[in-house]
TrEMBL record:
<keyword id="KW-0547">Nucleotide-binding</keyword>
<dbReference type="GO" id="GO:0005524">
    <property type="term" value="F:ATP binding"/>
</dbReference>
<dbReference type="Pfam" id="PF00005">
    <property type="entry name" value="ABC_tran"/>
</dbReference>
<keyword id="KW-0813">Transport</keyword>
<comment type="similarity">
    <text>Belongs to the ABC transporter superfamily.</text>
</comment>
<protein>
    <submittedName>
        <fullName>Energy-coupling factor ABC transporter ATP-binding protein</fullName>
    </submittedName>
</protein>
<dbReference type="InterPro" id="IPR015856">
    <property type="entry name" value="ABC_transpr_CbiO/EcfA_su"/>
</dbReference>
<comment type="function">
    <text>Probably part of an ABC transporter complex. Responsible for energy coupling to the transport system.</text>
</comment>
<dbReference type="GO" id="GO:0005886">
    <property type="term" value="C:plasma membrane"/>
</dbReference>
<keyword id="KW-0472">Membrane</keyword>
<feature type="domain" description="ABC transporter">
    <location>
        <begin position="5"/>
        <end position="233"/>
    </location>
</feature>
<dbReference type="InterPro" id="IPR027417">
    <property type="entry name" value="P-loop_NTPase"/>
</dbReference>
<dbReference type="InterPro" id="IPR003593">
    <property type="entry name" value="AAA+_ATPase"/>
</dbReference>
<keyword id="KW-0067">ATP-binding</keyword>
<dbReference type="InterPro" id="IPR003439">
    <property type="entry name" value="ABC_transporter-like_ATP-bd"/>
</dbReference>
<dbReference type="InterPro" id="IPR017871">
    <property type="entry name" value="ABC_transporter-like_CS"/>
</dbReference>
<dbReference type="InterPro" id="IPR050095">
    <property type="entry name" value="ECF_ABC_transporter_ATP-bd"/>
</dbReference>
């Protein structure tokens, strides 16, 4: 598979001496759906920043689309959603924030308007477009930040905690957008339930930012010992069925668990 991002031997040390990444080698193929999971402070956000070209790692290289190691040359193809939505929302209105990406990339006015209208409707932002971003609630801000990253339809999405403050209704809406995205998706999250819903491959970041495991979602998400050793718990559905069903039959998501129960009981 052609890598869209190829990271080799990344190590990162913050100026105060904290090692946040340790010898991370990770190749992300076109169209892959990956969840990067790890306990708080393991190094997920730092890895996202390094892959997104927003932090220069202390050592190692990141190569994009087999073309360049300069992320700024492929900025229009990378959609990086940072953990804190305030990092995106800096214009006078929500509309201007969402328009910013498409405008920078020279998308036609008409195409941009259509795309923004669709995203705003889907994410419940229509009545908020003319408000200043600092007058939004936490969940509204996060939805606006998601819209601003998706507005320019990047090839690769690197999403740090895309659902943090979002309620159940809009969580489903954001999930649909991420699932329907045609390119590559990498989600950085401490939630194994989210990983189970979105990913076919799971990367576990262990202590001090080293990669503890990288493999098919089913293999990783049903390996309780591995997950617990790295400060994580299996998804809820796996916790419910582990020891009851065989590893290859354990449902990974609550929806799959429900289907299983309905089949068994019905
Ligand atoms: N600017 C910084 N300066 C110094 N240390 C930092 C800085 N940012 C993060 N760290 C440290 O680097 C390590 C990795 O942090 P990072 O934010 O990448 O973890 P994370 O896995 O994303 O955590 P969380 O799940 O809490 O978001 C932690 O020990 C953290 O305290």
């Amino acid at each position: 598979m052609e890598p869209v991002i190829d990271a080799r031997a990344l190590t990162h040390e913050y100026p105060d001496g904290t090692t946040a990444l340790r010898d991370v080698t990770l190749s992300i193929g076109r169209g892959e759906r990956i969840a990067v999971v790890g306990a708080n402070g393991s190094g997920k956000s730092t890895l996202q920043l390094a892959l997104g070209g927003l932090v220069e790692p202390s050592a190692g290289t990141v190569r994009y689309f087999d073309q360049t190691t300069d992320a700024d040359r492929v900025r229009d193809r990378l959609g990086v959603l940072l953990q804190d939505p305030d990092d995106y929302l800096f214009n006078t209105t929500v509309r201007e924030d969402i328009e910013y990406g498409p405008a920078q990339l020279g998308m036609s006015r008409r195409a941009a308007d259509e795309r923004i209208a669709r995203l705003a409707a889907h994410l419940g932002l229509r009545d908020l477009l003319d408000r200043p971003p600092f007058r939004l609630s936490g969940g509204e801000k996060q939805r606006a930040a998601v819209a601003s990253v998706l507005a320019f339809d990047p090839d690769v999405l690197l999403l740090d905690e895309p659902f943090g403050a979002v309620d159940a209704h809009y969580r489903e809406r954001v999930r649909e957008l991420v699932t329907d995205h045609e390119g590559t998706v990498v989600v950085f999250t401490p939630s194994l339930d989210l990983a189970a819903e979105l990913a076919e491959r799971v990367v576990v970041v262990g202590e001090s930012g080293s990669i503890a495991a990288d493999g098919p979602a089913r293999e990783i998400l049903t390996d309780s010992d591995l997950l617990r050793a790295n400060g994580l718990r299996p998804p809820a559905a796996v916790q419910l069925f582990e020891g009851i069903l065989d590893g290859d039959e354990i449902p990974l998501t609550v929806a799959a668990a429900r289907r299983h129960l309905v089949d068994e009981l019905g």
